[in-house]
Amino acid sequence: MDGLSKKLTEKDVTEALSQRKELLECYRQRLAMLSKEYEDSGELIEMLQMRSSRNDFGNNKGGFAHGLYDIYLLYEKQKKKYQEEIYQNMMQIMESIDRVKYVYLYYLQLPPKEQSVLKAIYIEGKSYKEIITEGLSEQKINRLRKKAIQAIIHRWEIDNQINQKP
Fold it and tell me: Of 117, 163, 107, whose CA–CA distance to 140 is shortest?
């Protein structure tokens, strides 16, 4: 989880719970798009290479062949830089996917009452009034909600500290 060490906030937790499926689908689509873009970045190089024997002008000092080679080297450099940027974007998306998955995993490990409150509020989208039951006041629901979110954040911090040790 080394890339996941970024601080987790209450907003991150509530967003991950309330929009988990949508977020994951969006991240996967962006990842697929970047993956295709990464693969396609090499197509232009094939057009620029022009490495047939016809284009090798032998002793032509600083001539046409040398110019094509310079263009080829420049393109290779730009292509590598572009691919590195795509790769970094892909890694950030992968970290975002993992972040959502970890929040959901921590949610699943909560005590049943806390889990049911978070499920009702964030996953099912119910209001406090809709989930008030006998013995469960609005204040109690709010306390359980806060406690559950803090437990998820605390677990995140513990897991990231453990994984960052050498």
Answer: 117
33 pairs with which residues across the strands? none
Q: What is the pTM of this model?
A: 0.73
Distance between CA atoms of 24 and 9, rounded to whole angstroms? 18
Rounded CA gap, 136 and 142, in Å? 10
Question: 37-76: per-residue pLDDT in tens?
Answer: 777 766 655 544 444 334 444 444 555 566 778 877 887 8
3-state secondary structure the chain: CHHHCCCCCHHHHHHHHHCHHHHHHHHHHHHHHHHHHHHHCCHHHHHHHCCCHHHCCCCCCCCHHHHHHHHHHHHHHHHHHHHHHHHHHHHHHHHHHHHHHHHHHHHHCCCHHHHHHHHHHHHCCCCHHHHCECCECHHHHHHHHHHHHHHHHHHHHHHHHHHHCC
Say how many C-beta atoms besides its own lie within 10 A of residue 102's C-beta. 19
What type of residue is 11?
Answer: K
161: number of CA atoms within 13 Å, CB side?
6
